[in-house]
Design brief:
about 70% helix, Phosphatidylinositol 3-kinase, Chain A, about 140 residues, mainly alpha, globular
């Protein structure tokens, strides 16, 4: 069903509607932007204590993603970095963006009991990629 969206329609003026639509789109993908196969690797990488080693690991993981995932991530995170640049007006800090998008972009194949524990790390991964955008991409 190829829907034609009229972006001039008044309801798209509300940024929350647009953000909600983006999150819903990302959440309903058959596989998250960070594929299930990479979930544990990203979680393990964000737990590395040494900051430079952690940085290299995450960059290498992002580079190892399938091209469609990598390229979409690059565009999405470039946009999210721009959102963060305006945090004074929109109150969306790196942490806020990570809380909103972490669980959507990065989730385990099965939602098991340790979800709350994962969420902290999911958000940290998104936060790290936002903070290190220039280095990673």
């Amino acid at each position: 069903a190829d829907e034609q969206l009229d972006l001039d329609d008044g309801r798209w003026e509300d940024i929350h509607v647009v953000t909600g639509a983006l999150k819903l789109f990302l959440r309903e993908l058959p596989e998250p932007l960070i594929p299930f196969s990479h979930f544990d690797k990203f979680i393990a990488a964000i737990k590395i204590q040494d900051p430079s080693l952690r940085g290299r690991c995450i960059r290498d993981l992002v580079l190892s993603l399938p091209p469609a995932h990598h390229d979409t991530m690059k565009v999405l995170f470039r946009h999210l970095c721009r959102v963060v640049e305006h945090k004074e007006e929109n109150r969306m800090s790196v942490q806020s963006v990570a809380i909103v998008f972490g669980p959507t972009l990065l989730r385990p194949a099965s939602e098991e009991a340790s979800m709350a524990m994962h969420m902290v790390f999911q958000n940290q991964v998104v936060e790290h990629i936002l903070n290190q955008y220039g280095y990673i991409f």
